[in-house]
Amino acid sequence: MNDSLDILIFGAHADDAEIGMGATIAKHTAAGLKVGICDLTYAEMSSNGTVELRQAEAEEAARLLGLSLRTNLGLPDRGLFMSPDYIERITMEIRKYKPRIVFAPYWQDRHPDHIACSQLIQEAVFNAKLRRYLPEMEAVQVQQLYFYFINDVYEADVMVDVSSWYDAKIAALSAYRSQFVTGQDTVSTPLNQGYVERVEARDRLMGQKRMITYAEGFVSKLPLLVDRFA
């Protein structure tokens, strides 16, 4: 069985990828590409919801977005740091699924776990191509590493027109009721105080730059290569 993916997206917590690029995911899966998400933690430190509930929500979001797979490395929530063991486990995930393109959170964000996740993925993408690193697994050269925005938005290098797929993003975010909806047993957090509406406003503003309804923006540390301008 071929486990290879076209795209592998990493997030510190379930819902990170959906916030940053849920509509882009839906657009690519609808086109027949194999897309997977790897969550680094079970978000066990979340103020609302349980680990079990958040896992069920993540699986529902995965179904709505048409993911080929969703995995979780079970690293400690609020305990992500530059550990050789963590880098090794992420590298093994990349080598197992051999993605052409990897996405990670942007390296600046108000949440320390998102920053740490970004750093860990960059290290793992680099190590994945080294044939003498974990030589028992075949080295994998990722063609492109992109960064998506979660809480804080900076200047994008590239944007994707997701106007026709934005409903899928909202549906996926709505699966995370424990995070984005207030209830009798919830406490107030930035996520359940109009957060989804602010994400939508952000994506509308991004689209306005190119006169489209919605866009999701991404950053690349490498220059984007084009064949010609025509």
From TrEMBL:
<dbReference type="InterPro" id="IPR003737">
    <property type="entry name" value="GlcNAc_PI_deacetylase-related"/>
</dbReference>
<dbReference type="Pfam" id="PF02585">
    <property type="entry name" value="PIG-L"/>
</dbReference>
<protein>
    <submittedName>
        <fullName>Bacillithiol biosynthesis deacetylase BshB1</fullName>
    </submittedName>
</protein>
<dbReference type="InterPro" id="IPR023842">
    <property type="entry name" value="Bacillithiol_biosynth_BshB1"/>
</dbReference>
<dbReference type="InterPro" id="IPR024078">
    <property type="entry name" value="LmbE-like_dom_sf"/>
</dbReference>
